[in-house]
Specification:
Blueprint: E1 4-6, H1 17-30, H2 54-59, H3 61-64, E2 67-72, E3 75-80, H4 83-92, E4 99-100, H5 104-109, H6 118-138, H7 141-159, H8 168-184, H9 194-211, H10 213-218, H11 222-247, H12 256-270, H13 278-292, H14 294-309, H15 311-324, H16 340-353, E5 362-363, E6 368-370, E7 373-375, E8 380-383, H17 385-389, H18 432-449, E9 450-453, E10 467-468, E11 472-473, E12 480-483
Parallel strand pairs: 3-8
Antiparallel strand pairs: 1-2, 2-3, 4-5, 5-8, 6-7, 9-12, 10-11
Helix pairs in contact: 1-9, 7-8, 7-18, 8-13, 8-14, 9-11, 11-13, 14-15, 14-16, 14-18
The structure holds protoporphyrin IX containing FE.
Length: 484
């Protein structure tokens, strides 16, 4: 029996959340859209019908309180609802809530930064953040990689003229190539769709595995194929690491692997106990791929979907871009502050998509005293990003796609602290800067070169997500890219 209760004993209520949850998982597995397709209008401001789910129940924090216990089978999960509560946990009591919940699927597939705890997590996270900042961003190298990749993407779309096409694989290949450049120091041909197939499987099947790990081990099914493919990816990474080792020049590190190997060699020389060893290198490389590709490319796919749904918004972005950059020069991150409307649209697309509504579950690594409650050690904690990104207390019209959420009365960009699609605090996404750079540079470049539309017109575009359980995955759709 699964039930949900407010932590205050006087306000306990039973909700059959598990039925909704299992329904979502089932829908995700059979890979069909929801039984009814709903198109939401731009000026609605109530949860659309596809939102009347377990998540929306949790959103009603005034009814259940901002700290809720949900039982999934025997597993107790504490859900934190609303901006103030999520911030208090992730920022004000950051250390207490920095644990990562056990994830059987992920453990079986790969260990590493994303799902580790304690000293291993601390060392790998610090190293990855520093390497991404110094190696990638600091030297502007990342910016030039993305500019370069944007050109390949534009060429690919031009080749595809004039037929309508599904942009999913086009965008995923571009985004995964940026991670390839960061990690392996090279990009791959767009014809290689192997990694994308793997990531698609991951995004759907892992949800079921996490809830029924033992059962899933015995059941036949596609998830076994995923583990085989992860092993292929692991073999590929191991081979790349070996090549890097043979050609490493400590005076000129080429990528993430080189930086890791330098640290590993240093540690071996001094014989100290460390988390910098080959197993963690391979695992963290896989983490960066798995966490960095599907997330960013789905967000780009969704933003482009919103642009064909709302052509007037697309036109306004193009005008702004034409005025500031023109149609030939590659955009740089410096341009972002001169493009407030474009910046606002990208932020609003991320808020509205709410890609990771439940966050990646956290874990109480000790007894935590929080808002007058004790959250016992080993409790799974979900700081509900959905409840912040769609909060009526934080956004004028949370269920409406409206770039004005990020603009002041003078049309200047205005950040809202409740914009936390990457989460917040010690465990927040390490790829945030990279993802934001990719979203901005790729989308601006595409709008410089193409006007996008839908073969069936804006009315035919259904912007509700296809799966809405642990992730809001945008639907597949057809796109026309007309050269400008
Ligand atoms: C739009 C794109 C992205 C979104 C919305 C996103 C969102 C998130 C979220 C919500 C978390 C969990 C934070 C928490 O536990 O509190 C996370 C963690 C993580 N993300 Fe991202 N992410 C994106 C892109 C990326 C990219 C490009 C990379 C890699 C370069 C990446 C690597 C990671 C890693 C390694 C973690 C685990 C951090 C840790 O456990 O300490 N993500 N991300």
């Amino acid at each position: 029996m699964i039930f949900l209760e407010a932590l205050r004993p006087s306000r306990s209520i039973h909700v059959f959340l598990h039925i909704i949850h299992l329904w979502h998982l089932f829908m995700a597995l059979i890979r069909r859209p929801y039984p009814e397709r709903h198109t939401i209008s731009s000026y609605r401001d109530s949860p659309p019908p596809w939102r009347h789910s377990g998540l929306s129940v949790l959103l009603r924090k005034k009814m259940y309180g901002p700290v809720i216990t949900v039982y999934l089978g025997l597993q107790r999960v504490v859900v934190l609802v609303g901006y103030e509560t999520v911030k208090e946990a992730l920022v004000d009591q950051a250390e207490d809530f920095s644990g990562r919940a056990p994830a059987p699927f992920a453990y079986k597939a790969t260990k590493g930064l994303l799902i580790s705890n304690g000293e291993r997590w601390r060392q790998l996270r610090r190293f990855t953040l520093t390497t991404l900042r110094d190696f990638g961003m600091g030297r502007k190298k990342m910016e030039s990689w993305i500019q370069e990749e944007s050109k390949h993407l534009v060429d690919l779309l031009r080749e595809n003229q004039p037929a309508p096409f599904d942009p999913t694989f086009f965008l995923s290949r571009a985004v995964s190539n940026v991670i390839c450049a960061l990690v392996f120091g090279q990009r791959f041909s767009y014809k290689d769709a192997q990694l994308l197939k793997l990531l698609f499987f991951f995004s759907t099947l892992s949800q079921l595995y996490n809830i029924f790990p033992r059962l899933m081990d015995y059941l036949p099914g596609q998830h076994h194929a995923i583990f085989r493919e992860v092993n292929e990816l692991r073999k590929f990474s191991t081979e790349k690491i070996r090549e890097h080792q043979e050609t490493l020049n400590p005076d000129d590190p080429r990528d993430y692997i080189d930086c890791f190997l330098m640290r590993l060699n240093e540690v071996e020389k001094n014989l100290v106990s460390t988390e910098f060893h080959h197993e963690n290198l391979t695992a963290t490389v896989l983490n960066l791929f798995l966490a960095g590709t599907e997330t960013t490319s789905s967000t780009m796919r969704y933003t482009m979907m919103l642009l064909i749904k709302y052509p007037d918004i697309q036109e306004k972005m193009q005008k702004e871009i034409d005025n500031v950059i023109g149609q030939t020069r590659s955009p740089t991150m410096e341009d972002r502050k001169s493009l407030p409307f474009t910046n606002a649209v990208i932020h609003e697309a991320q808020r509205f998509l709410d890609l990771v509504p439940l966050n990646v579950p956290h874990y109480a690594t000790k007894d935590i005293s929080f808002k007058g409650y004790i959250i016992p050690k080993d409790t799974v904690v979900i700081p509900l990003l959905h409840s912040v990104l769609k909060s009526v207390d934080q956004w004028d019209n949370p269920w409406t796609f409206n770039p004005n959420h990020f603009l002041d009365h003078n049309g200047n960009f205005k950040l809202n602290p409740a914009f936390i699609p990457f989460s917040s605090g010690k465990r927040a996404c390490v790829g945030e800067s990279l993802a934001r750079m990719e979203l901005f540079l790729f989308l601006v470049t595409l709008l410089q070169h193409f006007t996008f539309s839908s073969p069936g017109g804006p009315e035919s575009v259904d912007i509700s997500p296809e799966f809405s359980s642990l992730g809001n995955i945008p639907r597949r759709y057809q796109l026309i890219a007309a050269p400008r």
